[in-house]
Amino acid sequence: MLQPLRILFRPKWMVSRSSASYVSRMRHLNKIKEEDEACRAALQSGNIFLYHKLAPLLRWTDSGIYQLPALQTKDVEEILEKLGGDKEMVKESILINCTEQNEAQFSFDVGAIDQAAVEEQCRGTFVDLRKAFFLLRGSEAPLVARGQALLRWHQTNGFCSSTGQPTQRNQSGSQRVCHSSGITYYPKMSPVVIVLVSDGKRCLLGRQSTFPRGMYSALAGFCDIGETMEEALRREIAEEVGLEVESIQYSGSQHWPFPQSSFMVACHATVNPDKTHVSVDKEELEDARWFSLEEVQEALTIKVPPRNNKGEPTVFWVPPSYAIANRLIQEWANQQHLKS
Ligand SMILES: NC(=O)c1ccc[n+]([C@@H]2O[C@H](COP(=O)([O-])OP(=O)(O)OC[C@H]3O[C@@H](n4cnc5c(N)ncnc54)[C@H](O)[C@@H]3O)[C@@H](O)[C@H]2O)c1
Ligand SMILES: [Mg+2]
């Protein structure tokens, strides 16, 4: 019998902020998302994160870490004019979020403007998002991913799929409308389940042939239309490794920008310890196997895997801490410790 969902942890945001300030912030954010005039006003005093061909601008700081520089709107206008662009382009910025001080945060892609010239003006570097995820700390990584996901969605949804006519965005960028058909389009994420299967003593990890060498992760799969998350999870595990899941526990979720926006729902699951034979679907996975607590602990300590002279990792390692797979593996290892 599948167990009902159970929240295993209380995220910080559930406990650390006073509800009044959180409520007023969310209402403010909703207003600027929905009302064009309010959004234009918020842009005047807001923060802008720059991208070039969807690569975010990062800045190396005196304290020895990379940061996501937040530019003021007037600074971006000045840079655009200086580099031969039109300062009105800044109005194409997309609303991402707002700070605890209620300052709106936007993402803006500099498009055809010379990359090196913008980097020089901003004292920063445009970095591929996968690398930026590694370099940024705390809440900056999900923020930069969200900004990129929204920019990408606008860049690829310029036309109505029903009429072929151009779609028009609202000021915040929370939607696009085809005025010919009346259809409103909203940014999309594909739901994905990611699951760490355990037989009580070991956990099951798999790898696709496209993963970097030696890296194994929790198993994942896209939900089919009409499926519940539990159904998708049971189906994916049956399809990919031929096992039947007995219980499921919800752990957390994450927006995952690669290669397109997915909404990752992360769970722990168990199988009957007498029914652990793995039969890998080789179309989906290169390998999947059971790992002991000792092997997993060792892998969790590896931040950057050692590499051979071809630059390939030489050991078993797991996804980095920004991936929710890492959190599932860490949680499993902690639970095994508590049991022993
Ligand atoms: N954040 C993490 O920790 C983490 C870890 C592992 C995987 N992931 C992500 O999970 C996602 C799904 O994992 P998977 O590749 O094993 O899925 P999967 O097992 O469902 O296999 C992928 C295949 O599903 C099909 N598919 C069905 N719906 C799709 C859709 N909406 N978009 C793309 N393909 C679709 C395609 O044929 C594709 O080749 C991947 O995007 C991967 O990047 C994230
Ligand atoms: Mg899969």
Automatic annotation (TrEMBL):
Cited Pfam families: NUDIX (PF00293), NUDIX-like (PF09296), Zn_ribbon_NUD (PF09297)
Show the catalytic activity. NAD(+) + H2O = beta-nicotinamide D-ribonucleotide + AMP + 2 H(+); NADH + H2O = reduced beta-nicotinamide D-ribonucleotide + AMP + 2 H(+); NADPH + H2O = reduced beta-nicotinamide D-ribonucleotide + adenosine 2',5'-bisphosphate + 2 H(+)
InterPro entries membership: NADH_PPase-like_N (IPR015375), NudC-like_C (IPR049734), NUDIX_hydrolase-like_dom_sf (IPR015797), NUDIX_hydrolase_CS (IPR020084), NUDIX_hydrolase_dom (IPR000086), Znr_NADH_PPase (IPR015376)
Q: Where is the Nudix hydrolase domain?
A: 187-319
- EC no. given is 3.6.1.22
PANTHER family from the UniProt entry:
NAD(P)H PYROPHOSPHATASE NUDT13, MITOCHONDRIAL, NUCLEOSIDE DIPHOSPHATE-LINKED MOIETY X MOTIF 13
- The identity of this protein, by name, is NAD(+) diphosphatase
